[in-house]
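User: For my dataset I need records formatted as: sequence, then structure tokens, nothing else. Please produce one.
Assistant:
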Amino acid sequence: MRQELMSLPKTLAEDVARNLVMVAKLLDDEPEQAYQYARVALRLASRVAAVREAAGFASYAVGKYSEALAEFRAARRMTGNSDLWPVMADCERGMGRPERALAMAGEPEVQKLDRAGQVEMRMVAAGARRDMGQADAAVVTLQSPELASHSIQPWTARLRYAYADALLAVGREDEAREWFAKALEADQGGTTDASDRLAELDGVEFVDALDPEQEADDGLKPVEEAEVEEAEADAEPEADAEPEADAELEADAEPEAVEPAVEELQSDEEPEDAEDEGQDDDAEDSAEDVEPTKAEARPEDQAGLPEKDGDDG
């Protein structure tokens, strides 16, 4: 790449190099930003094979498989080598054309690949088989000397992981668990999630005790409960007020409620030392002269009062 950039003017070469460095730095963790830097480098030096290759990987990382395939083809025309053949086939898979990817696995270019490239091509072919609904064929495709080898190579973890996933797809769960464990053993760089897949098969669920989002959610719970209790407390007086109102209406509607009031008035008007019947009659007349309240003045309420004697006037 350095020799290709040296063919550019110095200032331009420096700008392109800075963008390519940012692509390599952000590609794994921030693929969207890496893609933007790659587009800048592509505008500055589209005739540099390294720039086309970097743009292809950046597009591949964000799922723009058509763009990635075009960049990889351009880079391959410029360099003449077949190193990008497996990733080009995987772009065909990403575009929904697994049969083309499978056809590429049988092309002479595969024989030009080094051992790592051939292993990569085998995994792409197995993925294409699964895309086409041929899960059992995918298992057979991954069975190779590299899979059976006990030596740890850069591709070992990914190859074992792909094989375990293929076994799980055909219902061979016990074997899948064994190969996920082997993938985890070889995965020194943490390139796969074999540990999570093992835990899933074992029914283990991990909880991150230091998860700030979970802590924030837990901190909100007491507040929410307090708000609910406060709302319930505000609603309780209204509920209690209804029975009181009903009781008042019932009291107004009951005719019998007047008689105790009249009797109370009568008892207040009667002298403590009543000596003859005349005094009792006067007390009764006094009780009759008491006017009922508006609520007591209804005819049904007056039905309980004693009738006045026409001669008492």
